[in-house]
Structures are given as C-alpha cells and as structure tokens.
Amino acid sequence: MKKWFVLLILFSQLASGASRYQVATQERAFYNDSRTLSSVIYYPTESQQTPKTVGARPVFDGIESQPDATPANGAFPLIIFSHGSGGNSYSQAWLAKALVERGVIVVAANHPGSTSGNSIPAESVKLWLQTQDISALINAVVQDPQWQQRINHDAIGVLGHSKGGYSAIASVGGRVSLQDFVAGCRINPHSPSCQFYTQANVNLATLSAKAFDANFTDKRLSFAIALDPGMVPYLQPNSLRQLNAPLLIVAPEHFRADTAEANLAGASLAAFSGKWPIDALTLAGANHFDFLPTCPPTALQWLAEEGETFICASERSQREQAHRQTIAAVLAFIQPWLTNHNKIGTVHAPL
C-alpha cells in the first residue's frame, strides 16, 4: 500500500501536467471470423486542428479529439480496451484520452452480443468470444499497413472494465470453471456475475465447458489491467499464479453508489500473485459505474425512464476523482513500457 501511495502522488502530478501529444481518433471495423468489431482507434497526433467532441451520448460526456488527424511519428505502446456488458468503444474514452496524451495507442471495439444496443444475455454469457476478440484486434492492428510500424511490439497490453476486466485477465491466462459458475449462480442468482444471465433464464448448463474453461493466453501481451473485473469468484487460483504477465486490479469501494452492496472483490485477487505480480488498488468512495464517463446534468432524467439511475448516481466530483486516481494508477503501472522518443519501425524492450 505504501508503494501505491508514493506512485499515486508521483503520477497524479504527471497526469495533471502538460500533455506530450494531442488526441486523434479513427473509426475502423476489424474482424474476429464472422464477428464484426466496430472499433475506435485513439492515437497520438501532433496536429493542431480544432478538436471536435466524440463519443458523447445523452447520458455520458464525450472527449475532445481530432478525427482522422495524421498520426504522430513513433512506435508507441498498444493497449486493447474491452468494455463491460452493455458498454461500447467509448465507455473508457476518458482513460484512452489520458493514455494517448502520454504516447499510447488505444484500440477499443464494440463486442457483438454484449455491447450498447446489442446486449443479449444468451450471447454475452459466451465469455470466450470477448476474450478472443482481444487477440483478433491485436492481430488486425499489428498487421495493418497504417499502424504496424507505429506499434512497439514489445509493449502490448490489455485493459478492461467489468466483464471486459475478466476478459483482460483471461487474455493473460486467468481461467474460470463452468461447473463452479453454474453452481454459484444456482446458489446466488442475483450476484453481479450472474444476474444478467439468470434474469433472462439462460440455461448456463448448456454452455460448452471446453470453451468456457479454456486457456486464452495471448503471449504477445506484456501487461493487463482490470477495472473492477467480473467473474472474480470463478477465477481459478492456480491459473492466477501462472499468469503470463503482470496484472493491475483497480477496484472501487462499492458496487453501487445508492446501496450498501458489496464490491466485486477484485482486490482479493492480489493474494494469488505467483509467476507475475498481481497488484491491487481500492478507490475509497468509488463504485463500479465510476469507471464509465462523467454524466451530463440531463442524464438522470434519461436513465429514470429505464430504471437505471444508478449508472450516474455518483456526484460528478466523485467520478472525476475516481478517473484521476485510475489514470494515475494505470500510468504508474505501465511506466516500464512507456517510451517517449521511439522512431518508426524500431522495437524497444521494457525498461
């Protein structure tokens, strides 16, 4: 905890300092076999065009970006973002922006069957599809003529929130058990890892145990970050001790702002550090939905119609603080892979 206290002070100052790069975005479609991954590439630019607001929704603020601006010269770390159930490629745009300003390329995709406007319990429960999407995105970006020479191939990471947090852990070797999941959801069907599926009467026992329990390690990944990950009770301890890369867990104190409901226990995964460390940080006062964008004043009116005001129940200052703390923690964690003056086509090992 002392280590994280010192690092957060250091990188909170960095996060609030001058940005090295401007933020640009490009919308692209990539593919995982028959799955279309509608994506946003967030990338550094030195262009000084007038920015536009991108990613804004009635219930969420967007970010300022220069769409399709010329990429900055260099070979940059690549981080794949994976959203939570019902999320999308802009769900962590606030974090992507902060990383791009420090010289990182971020690719975030909409995961079919689990994204905004296409969140289907019977499809979303096939957890392996979202994990496979992450590897498919890496394949696509590192082979893309526009981007392959702008990627530091020794600095590829993954970051996810909620279900996407589980996917990030699975991508570096975390494994779950269908047998345990079915049994756990039978005992506690309203738990956060289960309720989306049990309320839709998905028959979990019909899932493929071979696919559900499989090892999806992508050995190209140098690090993983999980923001309040799902599926924590079902991750197998031995798999966590054998992860392929270091893992950072950023957990909130609560699951929801408007109840005393317990958090998802993500910080408990630090107890299973083994081959690589699992670091965990808990954000006091924060909740699971504080990892989403800030909410405009009209958001609660929109959400009330769907009975989902809990998504924006935090005070704006609370969510902004959670964002600042998360940015600082992520920058501290990935510092070994951050390079500031790479030349196009060169590959650098972590410092």
From TrEMBL:
<dbReference type="Pfam" id="PF00326">
    <property type="entry name" value="Peptidase_S9"/>
</dbReference>
<keyword id="KW-0442">Lipid degradation</keyword>
<keyword id="KW-0378">Hydrolase</keyword>
<dbReference type="GO" id="GO:0016787">
    <property type="term" value="F:hydrolase activity"/>
</dbReference>
<dbReference type="InterPro" id="IPR016986">
    <property type="entry name" value="UCP031982_abhydr"/>
</dbReference>
<dbReference type="InterPro" id="IPR029058">
    <property type="entry name" value="AB_hydrolase_fold"/>
</dbReference>
<keyword id="KW-0732">Signal</keyword>
<keyword id="KW-0443">Lipid metabolism</keyword>
<dbReference type="InterPro" id="IPR001375">
    <property type="entry name" value="Peptidase_S9_cat"/>
</dbReference>
<feature type="signal peptide">
    <location>
        <begin position="1"/>
        <end position="17"/>
    </location>
</feature>
<feature type="domain" description="Peptidase S9 prolyl oligopeptidase catalytic">
    <location>
        <begin position="94"/>
        <end position="173"/>
    </location>
</feature>
<protein>
    <submittedName>
        <fullName>Alpha/beta hydrolase family protein</fullName>
    </submittedName>
</protein>
